[in-house]
């Protein structure tokens, strides 16, 4: 993968040029303070340092500006004869030859390193983004596998308990968010028009049928079911919830 904008690592705007101006002023002031001690020796050293610092923090353009303006200031103020451009001697030639080449070498090395650093950071950012995408894809895949397993469990469950199934209901997933009393009691509401009666539904007492149509929750239930002599007997039942890709279902069956 190629990073096309690696050269755009440096911050832009007036801040970079203000920093370049302050670096020139600081280098000039410090060099003037050192002039009584060092004389005309190394007139461009501090400007080279200033250009390197500006390059590291603000990029190539401001650093080259600091280098060129620093060359003029160093030659004018710190190379004898001072404050005079009319004389060009060996000292001026040494400054013009040595200072730009050394400064350019340092600036180019720093620029190359900063671009490589920016490229590495971009690679790391892209890798992190792709890793997060893979994690989300894995989570979705795990959820799909879970719903498929639940669907298979439901399909195995239905034939096994076919003769004892009383009712199948499609549950409203948003019902668990309703702050009502039934929710506090752990009840899951069902949509009446999504109920499917099982083979034993017709044998349930009408009052229990009405109660089941209004509310139904997973767990144990006790229903009155008609026996052979047309009387109703209490029977223990169990409601099991299944989460599938088609939705949530609750199967109420007679407990074996």
TrEMBL record:
One of its GO terms (cellular component) is membrane. It is a multi-pass membrane protein. It is found in: Membrane. The chain crosses the membrane at residues 16-34, 46-73, 93-110. Residues 17-120 form the Sensor protein KdpD transmembrane domain. Keywords: ATP-binding, Kinase, Membrane, Nucleotide-binding, Phosphoprotein, Transferase, Transmembrane, Transmembrane helix, Two-component regulatory system. The keyword Transmembrane applies. One of its GO terms (molecular function) is ATP binding. Its main location: membrane. This is Sensor protein KdpD transmembrane domain-containing protein. InterPro entries: KdpD_sf, KdpD_TM. Gene3D superfamilies: Backbone structure of the membrane domain of e. Coli histidine kinase receptor kdpd. It comes from the Bacteria. GO terms for biological process: phosphorelay signal transduction system. The keyword Transmembrane applies.
């Amino acid at each position: 993968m190629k990073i096309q904008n690696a050269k755009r690592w440096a911050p832009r705007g007036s801040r970079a040029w203000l920093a370049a101006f302050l670096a020139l002023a600081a280098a000039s002031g410090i060099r003037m303070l050192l002039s009584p001690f060092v004389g005309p020796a190394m007139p461009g050293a501090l400007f080279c340092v200033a250009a390197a610092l500006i390059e590291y923090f603000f990029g190539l353009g401001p650093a080259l500006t600091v280098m060129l303006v620093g060359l003029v200031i160093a030659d004018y103020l710190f190379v004898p004869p001072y404050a005079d451009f009319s004389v060009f001697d060996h000292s001026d030639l040494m400054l013009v030859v040595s200072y730009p080449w050394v400064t350019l070498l340092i600036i180019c090395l720093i620029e190359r390193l900063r671009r490589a650093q920016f490229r590495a950071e971009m690679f790391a950012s892209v890798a992190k983004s792709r890793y997060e995408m893979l994690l989300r894809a894995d989570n979705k895949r795990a959820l799909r596998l879970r719903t498929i397993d639940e669907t298979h469990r439901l399909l195995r469950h239905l034939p096994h308990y076919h003769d004892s199934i009383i009712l199948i209901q499609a549950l409203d997933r948003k019902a668990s968010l309703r702050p009502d009393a039934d929710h506090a009691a752990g009840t899951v509401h069902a949509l009446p028009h999504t109920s499917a009666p099982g083979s034993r539904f017709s044998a349930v007492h009408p009052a229990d049928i009405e109660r089941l149509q209004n509310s139904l929750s997973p767990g144990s239930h006790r229903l009155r079911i008609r026996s052979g002599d047309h009387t109703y007997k209490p029977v223990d039942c169990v409601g099991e919830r299944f989460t599938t890709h088609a939705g949530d279902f609750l199967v109420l069956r007679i407990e074996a």
